[in-house]
User: Fold this.
Amino acid sequence: MKLGNLLALGALAAGAAYLLKKKKKDGTVIQTKGRIVDDAVDQDFAVDMPAVREVVIATNNKSKVEELKRMLEPLGFTVYSLKDKNISIEVEETGETFAENALIKARAIYELVKCPVIADDSGLCVDALGGAPGVYSSRYSGEGDKDNNAKLLREMEGVTDRSAQFACVIAYLDETGASHTFTGICRGEIGFEERGLFGFGYDPLFMVGDRSIAEMTPEEKDAISHRGDAMRKLADYLGEQ
Assistant:
């Protein structure tokens, strides 16, 4: 893996913040990075990097766009939402697996933008519920996050086995439209009540250790989440290209 991408991955895992600055040096694009420490920038290395790449996030979920943007920008991407591209479309998720749905969404948007696209499909899989809600996580109740969580708590009443996992498949379509998928997993348990103010979806109910995902900072969530896991695998792949 190239040094720049390896260091960026370390920043993601540690929750560190980095600045990226591009310079021209003998016609070469140089990208410097520095750790932000007490508002002072410690620029301790510089690496040759390719020009910033453009990628479109194939989702209308604002929270998901912000989460992926937070992970992708340190890797040298300029990230666009569908709104940024003036695209108003709801892609029907007709797949039976996370991978199928992620690819369906990515391919639909690629046909419109003809540039790299990232789409993800993710969900909560509860062991005691036979893997439900799974691919139907976002539409479990048909009424949104609050009602989804309320329904899950009802389904888990009296259940002692609270084990579950968040699963995510990221589909990346490159400039040519060739597809690549990366899977991420985060194991935990279903809590007995909603806790925390951060995150979205089932985050307030999903416990990792003694905290819910919604009680973690964005950086802490990125370091352990299913989407962060899948994104690091994508970054490994990109670093090898």
